[in-house]
Amino acid sequence: MNSPVTSLPTIGFIGTGIMGKSMASHLLKAGYPLHLFNRSPEKAAALLEQGAIWHSSPKELAAQCDVVITIIGYPKDVEEVYLGTNGILAGAKPNCIAIDMTTSSPALAVRIAKLADERQVFVLDAPVSGGDIGARDARLSIMVGGVPSAYECALPILQCMGNNIALLGPAGSGQHAKLCNQIVIASTIMGVCEGIRYAQAAGLDASAVLKVIGSGAAGGTQLNVQGPRMIKGDFAPGFMAEHFMKDIGLAIESAEQMGLRLPGLEQAKRLYQLMLDDGMARDGYHALYQLYIANKV
Known about the structure:
The chain contains 14 helices and 9 strands. It is α/β, with parallel strands linked by helices. The chain folds into 2 domains: 11-170, NAD(P)-binding Rossmann-like Domain (Rossmann fold); 176-293, N-(1-d-carboxylethyl)-l-norvaline Dehydrogenase, domain 2 (Orthogonal Bundle), CATH 1.10.1040. The chain has a 6-stranded parallel β-sheet. Strand 1 (11-14), helix 1 and strand 2 (34-37) form a beta-alpha-beta unit. Helix 9 crosses helix 11 (221-232) and helix 10 runs antiparallel to helix 11 (221-232). The longest helix is centred in the middle third of the chain and has 29 residues, at 173-201. The chain starts with 10 loop residues before the first strand and ends with a helix.
């Protein structure tokens, strides 16, 4: 296989949702020519007004780009966008670098990378953590799996969107790392819900409690950012519960393949299923707290 391109002037971006729209805007501001595809064209309107170019399919977009970035919904969407008749690999030029920033299946990432290699295309799996705020502020953590030479070429682009970026191994490694991230969040967010509920039941000012414990050993993003939102009843999504449930399912599936049992994650899956059954799929994942308020846990 030839070396990947060393100059990446033209970028294609697929997926301009809650996070993708901010991520793509950073690339425009950095001066990259930007080409777009999204299943809902109206979600790309603001970027098109700023000079991005629209395409009618991933295949058409990929044919015009040196780098293609995707951040979409579910593994089935990733599979279709990369491997479908009108997908990225059907249109990508040799030495194109495709970067999937969706949280997806590690096994699928490996399969896509192998098929891409046959077409002289480089694929990095590079899921992100940081939610809508991290995307807006270009402060995402980006976990990457793939070929080191492709990573080095893609790094200046990734640095437009994140500030904590690491190559963690071959194809699939980025997805495994992201699932580690979601496993930690799943149990942590349950602890935050329970701590706040306990404080309230004890007659304490929960906000005052968070302020004190947030600077101690219990502090962290879930407590210090999502905790105040729970107390205020602000459950707007920075990351939707249905997508978090998808990630939990992927992590449990991967763990089972490795012979691992993760009881905290299994409990989180049970609670998030209750949340989805209650019609809160498109609320923020921190809206899990509503189950505790309603004594449904």
